[in-house]
Structures are given as structure tokens and as C-alpha cells.
Design a protein that fits this description.
There is one protein chain. With 95 residues, the chain is an alpha+beta fold. The chain has one domain. The chain contains three helices and three strands; from the N terminus they run αβββαα. A three-stranded antiparallel beta sheet has the order 1-2-3. A hairpin with a 2-residue loop joins β2 and β3. The termini are far apart. The N terminus is likely disordered.
């Protein structure tokens, strides 16, 4: 019985995550160098002004560069990239 339970747990751990529901695919995120012509002057997470470009963190989120003010905001974007990509687009449209 214990062996069967351990095998079942092993299968669950080794199984790939369930695919996202249609229309809600996971957006890829990777670290990139900040570009000097980034269009926003605020962090998409906090709304605070961004530091000079050399001190910012930049991520490619589904093909769109998003710059943030700090490591904590970078982690937040990495955890919820779809939300912050939408927020970036909203802020860009409001400019």
C-alpha cells in the first residue's frame, strides 16, 4: 500500500503542469538589457518613477520590454506576466 502511494505521489510530482485554458496561455518572460528608448517613466508594478536606465531591471514579457524599479517588482512581473503586460499596455495607451 505504501509503495503504491509513493508511486502515485511520484507520478503527480513528475507530471507536467496542466496546460493553460484556451485564451490564457502563459506568457514567456526573460531578463534583457534596458533599452534607452523605453516609453514609460514609471514602474508597472508600483507606479513609482523609474531610476536612470542603468539602474533599472528590464524583462521581455511575451515579446514586449517591460522595465521595473527593483528586484521585488521583477519577481512580481515574473509571477504574473499576463497581468503586467496588460498594465503596461494600459499605461502606454493613457500617455
Amino acid at each position: 500500500m505504501l509503495v503504491a502511494l509513493l508511486l502515485l505521489v511520484g507520478l503527480l510530482v513528475a507530471s507536467p503542469a496542466a496546460p493553460a485554458s484556451p485564451g490564457h496561455e502563459r506568457v514567456s518572460v526573460s531578463r534583457v538589457a534596458p533599452s534607452p528608448d523605453y516609453p514609460l517613466e514609471v514602474c508597472v508594478v508600483t507606479g513609482d518613477p523609474l531610476a536612470p536606465a542603468k539602474d533599472r531591471r528590464a524583462l521581455d514579457v511575451g515579446g514586449q520590454e517591460i522595465q521595473v524599479c527593483c528586484a521585488a517588482c521583477q519577481a512580481e512581473v515574473e509571477a504574473r506576466p499576463e497581468s503586467y503586460l496588460a498594465k503596461f499596455r494600459e499605461l502606454l495607451a493613457d500617455r
